[in-house]
Specification:
Elements: H1 2-9, H2 18-46, H3 53-73, H4 75-91, H5 104-130, H6 138-159, E1 178-184, H7 188-206, H8 211-231, E2 233-238, H9 239-261, H10 263-273, H11 275-280, H12 285-310, H13 321-334, H14 339-358, H15 368-379
Antiparallel strand pairs: 1-2
Length: about 400
């Protein structure tokens, strides 16, 4: 059956890499989920799609970048450090060159700054752009949202570093070590051959064999090592990705507690049902809306910081467009206005992207978002966990 599928479709599936791809999809999807929460919370309160949310995500990434530069991890500072170390080594051959120390506390500062800056930007956008449009038609509010998005993109291209696209230096990240878990080991025959090749190489080195013999044995060992890796089913992640997943879980748990268990959360839920009734109950609706924008924007800032720091993603002023669109589709997929739905949609979007890559169509992974959006709008406009009620926008 598999052979027939390969013949018809023209792809050869590597089943041993599927668990790794699923884990990669979970990591990517967690970032989409954080961004999607901003879309869905704003829509839940205002019935407005904040199309500038992707640009808030972009500004969070740049905040992380600039804060790392201030901490001494700019390209010039790193170059001068290593030049100084090389000069010391040249002057004293016994000198042991150091690497730049990476402190986890720097990451805490970066994520808090990114969340704070994005929260302030979200509040400013709400006050100056969306609040005047609150009693206008939804079309006017939608056009305003698109206008704010374009304004931030092109203003960023004027004032933010973009050429060449900068990225957060890997030296700032202390969690670069790989963690590997083997689910299904390689066949015993291949493992035995690999062990024998390692023993033969060590014996050749101890006996003083010639360079050609040692080179042949090393090539054989490397080939067998590749066979072991190719035939084993394992999951490998950097410590940074594990930290990222745990941080996302903590943020989502904190958001759930805030929405369900605190007075601010109860005010948000009341305002999402009816502004006038909430006002009559003594709730400051303007404050609730601003707080909602700040909260969603802060989550986007956290996601941006972790993406550019732990994944090493380069950035430019239009950097937030693709993640923003995909997160919007994730929010629609789960049910726009539904917080658990946004999380579910983000995870499914990440898994869909990585599965497309696993199938061998990596060039089309960005199109998955639009295919999913089309299918959802055709068959379930309310989303997987959303209401089936049809609304005009």
């Amino acid at each position: 059956m598999d052979a027939l599928f390969y013949t018809l479709v023209g792809i050869d599936l590597n089943w041993s890499s599927l668990p790794q791809q699923l884990v990669n999809g979970l990591v990517v999807g967690s970032i989409y989920a954080l961004i999607a929460l901003g879309y869905t919370m704003v829509y839940g309160v205002l019935r407005l799609i904040n199309f500038a949310h992707g640009e808030v995500f972009m500004l969070g990434a740049y905040t992380a970048l600039l804060s790392s530069w201030v901490m001494g991890f700019s390209p010039d500072a790193i170059r001068k450090f290593y030049e100084s170390e090389a000069a010391k080594k040249l002057a004293d051959p016994s000198y042991v060159e150091r690497s730049i120390p990476a402190d986890p506390f720097n990451l805490v500062i970066m994520i808090l700054l990114a969340m704070a800056v994005c929260a302030v930007i979200g509040a400013v956008i709400e006050f100056f752009a969306y609040r005047p449009m609150r009693n206008q038609s939804r079309t006017a509010a939608l056009i305003t949202a698109i206008g704010v998005s374009l304004l931030l993109q092109y203003a960023g291209s004027l004032f933010l570093p973009a050429s060449p696209p900068p990225s957060v230096a890997m030296e700032v990240n202390p969690y670069q070590t790989n963690v590997s878990v083997t689910l299904v080991p390689a066949p015993k025959e291949i493992r035995d051959k690999f062990d024998d090749s390692v023993s033969a190489l060590e014996a050749a080195k101890e006996s003083g064999a010639d360079a050609e013999t040692i080179g042949d044995l090393e090539r054989k060992k490397n080939d067998l090592e590749g066979q072991v890796a190719a035939t084993a089913t394992a999951i490998t992640m950097t410590q940074g990705k594990i930290v990222m997943l745990l941080t996302v879980l903590v943020l989502m748990a904190a958001l759930r507690f805030l929405v369900l268990k605190t007075p601010a959360g109860r005010s948000m839920r009341a305002a999402s049902h009816d502004f006038d009734s909430a006002s009559l109950m003594g709730i400051n609706v303007n404050r609730v809306v601003t707080f909602t924008f700040m909260l969603g924007s802060a989550l986007a800032g956290a996601g941006a910081m972790m993406l550019v720091t732990f994944e090493g993603t380069s950035m430019q002023p239009f950097f937030g467009m693709a993640p923003g669109v995909k997160a919007f589709v994730a929010a629609v997929l789960g049910g726009i206005g539904n917080i658990p739905g946004a999380v579910l949609g983000g995870i499914l979007m990440g898994l869909a992207e990585t599965l497309v890559t696993w199938l061998g169509f990596s060039n089309y992974k960005d199109a998955v978002a639009f295919v999913i959006l089309f299918i959802v709008l055709m068959f379930r406009p309310g989303g997987l966990l959303g209401s089936s009620k049809v609304e005009k926008v």
